[in-house]
Write a structure and sequence with these properties.
Elements (H helix, E strand, L loop, with lengths): L12 H13 L2 H7 L4 H15 L4 E4 L2 E4 L1 H28 L4 E7 L1 H18 L3 E7 L2 H9 L5 E5 L8 E15 L20 E4 L4 H12 L6 E5 L2 H9 L5 E4 H11 L1 E5 L6 E8 L5 H11 L9
Parallel strand pairs: 3-4, 3-5, 7-8
Antiparallel strand pairs: 1-2, 5-11, 6-9, 6-10, 6-11
Helix pairs in contact: 1-2, 1-3, 1-4, 2-3, 8-9
Amino acid sequence: MPPSGFNLARFDFVSIHLAVACAQTGSLTSAARDRNLSLPAASRRIRDLENALGDALFERHSRGLAPTAVGRVFLQHSLNMLQEMESLASEIADLRQGIARHILLCSSTAAINQFLSPLLARHAETCPQIQVEVEEQLSELVVASLRDGRADIGVFVEGPDIYGLEVRDFRKDELVLVLPAGHRLAGRTPISFADTLDEQWISLNAGAAMLQKQQQAALAAGRTFKLRMQVRSFDAVGNLVASRLGIAALPKGTAVPLARALRLTWRPLADGWAQRQLKVAIRPGPDTAVVALRNFLCAPSRNAKTA
């Protein structure tokens, strides 16, 4: 229930859009023009909103408008509300086109690059009424998104705490050493990670499952992990290695095509942690569409690449 004196009947989306535009532009004139309103009509709408709230939304000065503390709170909630309304309109439009369900899948980069793309393309063909939306995240954040209810299904590298989730094996992958052409460590036989630690390394940003394994392995060997550069993507890692700025480890399914494209070389790692299990997880009690997608992803498929 709104607080006493808070008149929701005097709110409408035209006025809310106008207030947001005022905050974003700092000008009532610009906001009125953007919303196709005359200046007097826009001024009246802002004044009506302020009367309904019982507080000023903006401070007026010679340079334009600046949100008050109440205005900043109003802006935050208005943006959330407008985004929700846009999502509502989008989902209604999808229903008219036969899309009955949206599923948010959060996934690690390794799973997207190596396995998920062909699987999701096949799923879209066989289940056109289900729209799967994908968000790329670090494995730890994939699990966190599942726990807080933001994601419906998650695919990640084994390692994060999975207590309370329904988890199944998805695919296996293998980390390999990626080197510039002609590097002294180039070879075909497996090499121990400890034997690479005299080199400068390139890896992913903090929180990545691969980086955590590298740091743990260096610590176990009593050596320093000489991490020179951290980037967000496997492609960026490959390009930095190609520029001879360091060496790296990447999933084999990504490393092999990158090596061909960038004239790199790769070598197996002998360490057990280089063999990784990828997992699929959902929360307990999901709807049938989420369960069906989980089962589809976990089923053996000729359409999914193998590492």
